[in-house]
Amino acid sequence: MTSKQLVAVVLISAATSVGSVLGVSKYQQQQLASNLPETTSIFQNARYTGESAVGGPVVDFEKAATKAAPAVVHIKVRIKPKQVAAGPEDVQDNPFKDFFGDGFGDMFGGRGGSRPSPEQRGSGSGVAISADGYIVTNNHVVDKADEIVVTLNNKKDYKAKVIGKDPSTDLAVIKIEANNLPYLTFANSDDVHLGQWVLAIGYPLNLETTVTSGIVSAKSRSIGVNSRNSSSPIESFIQTDAAVNPGNSGGALVNTDGDVIGINSAIASPTGSYAGYAYAIPSNLVKKVVNDIVKYGATKRAYLGIMYGNDQMSEEDRAKNNVKEGDGVFVMDVAKGSAADEAGVQKGDFVTKVNGQTINSGSEMVEKIASLHPGDKISLTYQHNGVEKTATATLKGTSGTYASIKQQVVEQLGASFEELDKSKAAQLRLSNGVVVKDLGQGILTEQTRIKAGFIITKVNNTRINTIDELKAALKNAGNSAIISGVYPQQPQTEYQYALNDLNGQE
């Protein structure tokens, strides 16, 4: 059968980070239910305490709200209409196919055509972090934006530009041309404790400045939300029951002193609106990412060099590897030549402390490492065959060196990949290929209609057998490339997607 080609012209507007070390955890959705026995009354009689009962101290929210609210801004974004490449589903029901053959329609917008995506508008929140106009927000608030307008607490509007983005943490820095802005400072998120009172400040549901209160209900939470936009998500959220709704994204979570302890990023909800829990990126991680973006334009990410698995390990795997709660972070594998390897960590060990601080989960370890830079030295405590050892580890970048980490072209695709299984290749009569496993936010989803399961066989004229070959081919492609491949349902039909401006996010 003669192959048909589909060419999709793509503009870059987002990037994701691919990491070999920080680890991957799958999002496990939890449903909360309140089940009462039939004999249990939902009404309880009031209980009266004696005069000797002592209440807790009165918490003053007014001081914190008065200090913080003027520095939290409203962000409105506009995404212009774009031509989006057509996908295989656009041609499978071609009504003229039976009369004129498979090729009819190519010249009229079939496999060579595209569809317009309508204009989109959205809004979120941000936090001014300097008097001269630097603002931190969520990456998902501004990621695809063609136009960004910031409205201050005093109702003044400013056009903003993106300074840099980090999809792994869902953070971005934007800037407006203004002076003498009210701004907030970061508190030490390591000092945050369970039960601590906090305020969430933002612009939910396109309303005016809104302040809600709650407590810190958990720390170091990993919920999998960043895995939609990044191949190496970094999640160690502060969980709070302060009411947070759509539009709060990028807003401030502050302590009772009015200092930032987190940037609000996500909610756990079956409806999309507040349903009990919200999640904020801890301020220590925010501060590091923001400083990198302002100074370098991108994040300089450090890696320890281990794969871990105890956060989401099944009971079977726990038993197989003799992993118990409180043992630390189970090391599933160690990258050769990595910081952990050079420190003596081996497969099967347990990391228990970083810089003297006890580590109970992979997300907690990830937060500590992600707050550091390539070249930083850490004290690493681990258990090897039941014996505690402490060593100094020098963190490295993705290349195994101490050099600055730049976002790589393959990371900007916004997808995870796996090499084509030999049996599957034989079944499809293919000799090579790399499968698009999962699609997040990035080039492929923004400007093409490519679907998960697409098998990449070539980049330009270079055959692709492995993920490393895909990375190398894209790196060597320059500013543009054509990705060729097939879908398993139509292995004899080749599709092509043209990618342009590949270096737009360096």
General description of the model:
The strands form 5 sheets. Strands 1, 22, 23, 24, 25, 26 and 27 form a 7-stranded mixed beta sheet that branches. The chain folds into 3 domains: 59-80 and 119-299, Beta Barrel (Thrombin, subunit H), CATH 2.40.10; 306-394, PDZ domain (Pdz3 Domain), CATH 2.30.42.10; 409-499, Pdz3 Domain. Helices cover 14% and strands 31% of the residues. It has helices at 61-68, 97-100, 139-142, 283-296, 315-320, 339-342, 362-370, 422-428, 443-447, 467-476, and strands at 9-10, 72-79, 82-85, 114-117, 120-128, 134-137, 147-151, 157-166, 171-176, 197-202, 210-221, 237-240, 252-254, 260-268, 277-282, 306-308, 329-334, 350-354, 357-358, 377-384, 387-394, 415-419, 434-439, 455-459, 462-463, 481-487, 490-499. It has 10 helices and 27 strands. With 506 residues, the protein is of the alpha+beta class. Residues 1-54, 91-113 and 400-408 have low confidence and may be disordered. Strand 20 (377-384) and strand 21 form a beta hairpin. It comes from Segetibacter aerophilus. GO terms for molecular function: serine-type endopeptidase activity. Residues 293-361 form the PDZ domain. Keywords: Hydrolase, Protease. This is Type I deoxyribonuclease HsdR.
Terminal Cα span: 41 Å
CATH uppermost class of the largest domain? Mainly Beta
What spatial form do the alpha-carbon principal axes imply? globular
What low-confidence regions span 5 or more consecutive residues with pLDDT below 50? 1-54, 91-113, 400-408
| SS-derived structural category | alpha+beta
Q: Report the total helices.
A: 10
Q: Helix coverage percent of residues?
A: 10-25%
Specify the CATH architecture of the largest domain.
Beta Barrel
Range of strand content: 25-35%
Main β-sheet description: 7 strands, mixed
* Domain tally: 3
Mean pLDDT: 78
**Rg over alpha carbons:** 25 Å
CATH topology of the largest domain: Thrombin, subunit H
State the total count of DSSP E strands: 27
